[in-house]
Design a protein that fits this description.
Oligomer: heterodimer
Largest interface: A-B, 84 and 79 residues
Number of helices of chain A: 4
Strand content of chain B: 5-15%
Number of strands of chain A: 0
Number of helices of chain B: 17
Structural class of chain A: mainly alpha
Helix content of chain B: 40-55%
Structural class of chain B: alpha/beta
Mean pLDDT of chain B: 88
Helix content of chain A: 55-70%
Strand content of chain A: under 5%
Shape of chain B: elongated
Distance between the termini of chain B: 73 Å
Low-confidence stretches of chain A: 1-36
Order of helices and strands of chain A: HHHH
Low-confidence stretches of chain B: 528-549
Largest sheet of chain B: 8 strands, mixed
Mean pLDDT of chain A: 73
Radius of gyration of chain A: 22 Å
Radius of gyration of chain B: 33 Å
Chain lengths: 149, 605
């Protein structure tokens, strides 16, 4: 698993190996002048972090699916109603997890882009994230209730 | 549920499904931690600017998605396990009945009726023919069937009837379980969007309550936690649970687990964070509902002499002022919760915040440890005094943080965890409530359990210091006085109105481990003594106080009579120069802070 920690360590090693770029990180370096510090590596590390989360979410989807082996049948008239209920549950959580995974993956690109775009235009990077946010508006429904509260 | 359905049902299948949801919950919990404690923190350390803020906003939303999945899938897992546990007895009953039927060569029909072959002594030259028995679950029907069996010539009839009854009973039981759980499971369906609103969090809380109620049998079966809350018994109980059982408890009883002294700090922290997030959601919704109820803000000003309207002059209405005060109260509590949550954003394991207690009851309570008390060499527990409450928790956490930093600086070879223990209802006014010992009386049990829990949950030997400020010194003193075996090594009292005993030795630790300091200008020196000749209304009483060592609650711990040790603190600002009692709050300035850190790390002041 490409954990964020691992990714970060790798990036740090790369940075100190010769690229000449110093990471302003937990090691204490902050430096920088003016309002905007472009630290491509830091952005890339964050992008790698969310990518790892997306991978984990995907793996967990498999675990969730594996658990469903005995749950496929039954639940019709005279059957086990809880089986039918569980299948609805499963469908909803599969969809939710898939969406969260997508949200992680969707953040990766803008995070990487911000690392490069930020030098030029901070506002452009902001709009990248804002557009992402617009995709996920709350609907009045809460979990398990189709409408209203 | 019919015969075929129960026959096919495998409780273990539900448990397998439960494991799948548990994996989701665990993954989500980990992902949330990764986002909050690493990804966002590192970005903040390395970057700045609007793009970073926008990115953090999105990452924060993502963390909320994971939080929601963590809580809800944990509940789904518990619900499915509970269903399996609830339905298993019915399933066993059915399986046993089927086995008996097969042994006797009976066959079972789709409706659960039991057919039996011809058998018995010949009647009129014929073996009594076979037949079929329909199961009954109610007593009257069973009595009728028993009667019939008594006269039936075929000896198979009676066992077949009994078998059919057991099948009917099993089906009835299983159907009840099914009817209880199916709607509950449907309520746990995921939200249709990824924006975790306050309403979603409130819904999650309702789900928790629903699962808790329905899973009662299952959870009771696990083994209920000890009732008296003794930390050692709590720890034993926790150790005796399987991982699945632990997960189930945390999912449905986060508040209970979070408050349980003696459990590992990491477990309590995880549970309390769920409680905090959900309480924040509920309170935020309350706040928005309240905003909708804003009454008329201004009214025309009436001249009090003439009773006529003064043109152009407006005053705020009484109703609005009342409304606004309540609005502010809710808002301040939300800020307090935000202040606690802001402490979670750190990647440094030594200064990571552990939420060891939280609720919004009365003035609100919070127990926050900076650093892990289970692995620290030194633990300092700060008991705040008059005026402490959730809405002003920020300042009290800061004090705990400052002490932690200073202790770490002085003694870098050892780890120090510093706790803010706002686990009691502190008096809210200096000259009213604070002259009443009932607040401390009620705090003695919870504080003693907390301090004992620190020792119980610790992996080795811990050097424990209790630090009281103001009224908190009375709480600490009374707690030590009444619990001779309390695992506390040092006590520090600053700005004390008295600690409930006249002599340091009455605190059951060596007198040279009891440290006190009161700034010269701290008005607590003037706290009114008990009624009698020194009653507060007698102005001369205050003059005598300068010679008399007794203050509000026993001897002043900074005096020779008390027999403990003292450390130097600056005089402090004169009363009235910066708020009414500035000197009462200056014990976290650098000089006294160094003394306190020295004591906490096992040295001397």
């Amino acid at each position: 698993m490409a954990s964020f920690e691992g990714e970060w360590t790798r990036l740090k090693a790369e940075a100190s190996a010769g690229s000449g770029v110093r990471l302003a990180s937990a090691d204490g370096g902050s430096g920088g002048s003016g309002g905007v510090k472009s630290k491509k590596e830091a952005w890339d590390a964050a992008a790698a972090g969310v990518e790892a989360l997306a991978e984990n979410a995907k793996k967990t989807l498999t675990s969730l699916e594996n658990g469903q082996k005995g749950m496929g049948k039954g639940g019709g008239p005279g059957g086990v109603e809880s089986l039918a209920a569980q299948r609805e549950l499963y469908a909803s959580w599969k969809r939710y997890l898939d969406a969260v995974r997508g949200r992680c993956a969707g953040l990766k690109g803008p995070l990487e882009k911000a690392g490069t775009a930020q030098h030029e235009n901070d506002a452009e990077a902001v709009s990248l994230f804002q557009r992402l946010g617009d995709r996920y508006k709350d609907t009045p429904a809460v979990g398990g209730q189709s409408r209203g509260r | 549920m019919d015969f075929a359905a129960l026959k096919d049902l495998k409780p273990a299948d539900f448990e397998d499904a439960a494991d799948g949801y548990r994996a989701v919950s665990d993954m989500a919990s980990q992902a949330k931690g990764e986002l909050e404690e690493r990804i966002q923190v590192k970005m903040r350390q390395s970057l700045e600017g609007k793009a970073m803020d926008a990115a953090l906003g999105q990452l924060h939303e993502l963390a909320k998605d994971f939080h929601y999945a963590q809580v809800e899938c944990g509940l789904v897992s518990t619900a499915l396990n509970a269903f399996a546990a609830d339905v298993r007895p019915a399933k066993k009953k059915l399986d046993a009945a089927i086995a008996d039927a097969e042994a006797k060569n009976f066959s079972i029909g789709a409706d659960g009726s039991v057919s039996y072959p011809a058998a018995g002594d010949e009647v009129d030259g014929k073996t009594p023919q076979g037949g079929s028995a329909n199961g009954a679950t109610d007593e009257t029907a069973r009595a009728v069937a028993r009667q019939a069996a008594n006269f039936a010539p075929n000896p198979n009839f009676r066992p077949a009837q009994e078998c059919a009854n057991r099948i009917a009973e099993a089906l009835k039981q299983a159907t009840e379980v099914d009817e209880k759980w199916a709607p509950q499971l449907r309520k746990l369906k995921a939200d249709d969007d990824l924006s975790v609103s306050d309403a979603d969090l409130v819904d999650a809380q309702k789900d928790m309550k629903g699962v808790r109620e329905n899973a009662k049998d299952y959870l009771d079966h696990i083994k209920a936690p000890p009732e008296d809350g003794d930390p050692k018994a709590n720890a034993e109980w926790w150790k005796g649970l399987t991982k699945q059982e632990k997960d189930a408890y945390v999912s449905v009883h986060p508040a209970g687990i979070g408050a349980m002294d003696g459990l590992p700090a990491a477990v309590r922290d995880e549970a309390n964070r769920v409680v905090l997030a959900e309480t924040h959601g509920t309170t935020q919704q309350q706040y928005e509902d309240w905003l909708k109820k804003e009454p008329k803000h201004y009214q025309n000003y009436l001249n009090p002499m003439t009773g006529t309207e003064v043109k152009g002059a407006l005053v705020e209405t009484e109703a609005w002022k009342k409304w606004n005060a309540h609005r502010k109260e809710i808002d301040d509590r939300l800020k307090g919760m935000d202040n606690i949550a802001s402490r979670f954003d750190t990647s440094d394991p030594d200064t990571r915040a552990y939420l060891l207690g939280f609720d919004n009851d009365k003035q609100g309570h919070a127990i926050v440890s900076i650093g892990n008390p289970d692995t620290a060499d030194n633990v300092a527990t700060y008991v705040p005094g008059t005026g402490a409450k959730l809405s002003s928790v920020d300042g009290d956490i800061k004090r705990a943080e400052m002490l932690q930093q200073q202790a770490q600086r002085i003694d870098p070879a050892h780890k120090t965890a510093s706790v803010l223990w706002l686990g009691y209802d502190a008096p809210q006014s200096v000259f009213g409530d604070a002259t009443d010992s009932k607040f401390a009386d009620n705090a003695r049990e919870p504080l003693s359990k907390f301090l004992t829990g620190i020792d119980t949950a610790h992996s080795g030997k811990v050097n424990s210091t209790v630090l009281g400020h103001s009224y908190g010194t009375l709480v600490a003193g009374e707690t030590m006085r009444d619990h001779p075996d309390l695992p506390v090594d040092n006590a520090i009292f600053v700005g004390s109105p008295g600690v409930g005993v006249d002599h340091a030795k009455d605190l059951h630790i060596p007198a040279d481990h009891v440290w006190s300091a009161t700034a010269k200008n701290d008005l607590i020196n003037l706290a009114p003594p008990p009624a009698g000749p020194l009653a507060p209304l007698n102005p001369k009483a205050y003059m005598r106080l300068f010679d008399d060592h007794s203050i509000l609650y026993g001897n002043d711990p900074t005096t020779d009579d008390f027999g403990g040790r003292t450390f130097e603190v600056p005089d402090g600002k004169a009363p009235g120069t910066d708020g009414m009692m500035p000197a009462h709050s200056q014990y976290w300035d650098s000089e006294p802070l160094s003394h306190m850190a020295n004591i906490v790390t096992g040295g001397h002041s």
